[in-house]
């Protein structure tokens, strides 16, 4: 992943939960670290090893991800470090909303490719098909093959929960979110 994209992701990370976790844990970096066991499990789930220096954030707004992608791969004006880019209109036509992803892991994959693993977690209870479909709609537009970053970024979507998801309707999801007709799943929360 380019330093430019890493900086754009950090600049647009405005969620208090991430910064609170970082502050109370005494972390100085703009990214969290994954434990080796989880890195290995996530790598198995998405089909590629996850490096130790991956950019890791929690509770990341998808609108901010769109802005970081646009700034890096399709922006038309220079952004000073620390200056968030706030658009009245966005490049995807997506509504400005607070839809977020629970865990986002971003890393360089090959020479000119960036991987983005989007992990949605459920600690207790059942998955909500309406909520998942809303994210799928958003993500299908964000990672539409016509987007300027389509050839540079490969997304993956993973569900993480104590029990295997049941009755999750993936019929309206893009293929990359449910590659074999079912969501990619990691068992978690011991």
Lay out the secondary structure.
Layout: H1 3-12, H2 16-24, H3 36-46, E1 55-61, H4 62-74, E2 100-108, E3 114-122, H5 129-142, E4 153-161, E5 184-187
Parallel strand pairs: 3-4, 4-5
Antiparallel strand pairs: 1-2, 2-3
Describe the structure.
This protein has 190 residues and is α/β, with parallel strands linked by helices. It has one domain (3-187). The chain has five helices and five strands, in the order αααβαββαββ. Strands 1-2-3-4-5 form a five-stranded mixed sheet. A hairpin with a 5-residue loop joins strand 2 (100-108) and strand 3. Helix 1 packs antiparallel against helix 4. The two termini are 31 Å apart.
Label the structural class: alpha/beta
Mean pLDDT across residues: 85
Beta strand count: 5
Count the helices. How many?
Answer: 5
| Count of all domains | 1
Shape: globular
Looking at this protein, list some descriptive labels.
190 residues; alpha/beta; five-stranded mixed sheet; 5 helices; 30% helix
Brief rundown of the structure:
The chain is of the alpha/beta class and about 190 residues long. About 30% of the residues lie in helices and about 20% in strands. It has helices at about 5-10, 15-25, 35-45, 60-75, 130-140; strands at about 55-60, 100-110, 115-120, 155-160, 185.
């Amino acid at each position: 992943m380019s330093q430019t994209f890493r900086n754009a992701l950090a600049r647009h990370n405005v969620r208090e939960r991430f910064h609170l976790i970082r502050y109370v844990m005494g972390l100085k970096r703009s990214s969290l670290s994954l434990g080796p066991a989880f890195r290995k499990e996530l790598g198995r789930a998405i089909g590629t090893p996850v490096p130790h220096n991956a950019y890791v954030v929690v509770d990341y707004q998808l609108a901010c991800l769109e802005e970081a992608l646009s700034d890096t791969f399709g922006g038309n004006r220079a952004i000073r470090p620390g200056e968030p880019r706030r658009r009245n209109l966005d490049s995807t036509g997506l509504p400005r909303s607070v839809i977020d992803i629970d865990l986002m892991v971003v890393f360089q994959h090959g020479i000119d490719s960036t991987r983005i693993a989007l992990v949605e977690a459920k600690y207790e209870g059942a998955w909500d098909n309406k909520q998942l479909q809303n994210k799928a709609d958003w993500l299908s537009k964000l990672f539409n093959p016509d987007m300027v970053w389509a050839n540079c970024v490969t997304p993956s979507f993973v569900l993480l929960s104590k029990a295997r998801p049941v009755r999750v309707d993936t019929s309206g999801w893009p293929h990359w979110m449910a590659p074999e007709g079912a969501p990619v799943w990691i068992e978690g929360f011991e």
